[in-house]
Amino acid sequence: MIDLKSLSPAPWEVVHKSPRAADEVYYDMVGPDGKVLFDTCNSDVMLLHVEHDEGMSHWWDETGRTNFNFIAAARYAFDVMMRRGWGVFNGPRGWGVALNTLDDLYGIREKRWPDPFTALVEADELFHQTDQTEKSKESHAAAR
Predict the structure, then answer these.
(1) pLDDT at residue 40 above 80?
(2) First to last CA, the chain
(3) Alpha carbon distance 97, 114 (integer Å)
(4) Smallest Cα–Cα separation from 105: which of 83, 82, 125?
């Protein structure tokens, strides 16, 4: 069983490390404080890509980037579920967010997304942005 209280706080972010050589291409997963949680430097599934432009070469590990972006999105979505008490469902129009209230918070109930992680993360961001806008309007009205 996982002790969820021991989980590093969200959000997690993927940081590409600039290589000194082709075999040093890797990503770090960092927490909100910028500290490295884990990395891909010992990956056995690295798939290197390189692009050349203006005399420069840019290397990256596509498998590491894809896996780490998934982990970061899953961590953020899990945080939204735990913090807000929301869930997700898959319907004919895509993934939706199951709110823990009868109110349709800022039209979130009607929106659909391509995957469950994006649904939770973008609904949380929409809620936060709209909530901040509403609070700002209320404080301006109270100041008049």
Answers:
(1) yes
(2) 54
(3) 12
(4) 125
Q: What are the tens digits of pLDDT across the range 59-106?
A: 777 888 888 899 999 999 999 999 999 999 999 999 999 988 776 777
At residue 55, does pLDDT exceed 70? yes
The pTM of this model reads 0.72
> Which residues are 88's β-sheet partners?
97
CB 12 within 8 A of CB 90: no
Long-range contacts of 58-64 (CB under 8 A, 24+ apart): 59/19, 59/22, 59/25, 60/16, 60/25, 61/25, 61/26, 61/27, 64/25, 64/26, 64/27, 64/40
Question: Token pair for residue 138?
Answer: 């209320």
Q: Is the pLDDT of residue 108 over 60?
A: yes
The residues pairing with 79 across neighbouring beta strands, listed in sequence order, are none
Q: Any residues with CB less than 8 A from the CB of 108 and at least 6 apart, and which?
A: 97, 99, 123, 126, 127
Residue with tokens 């898959």: 90
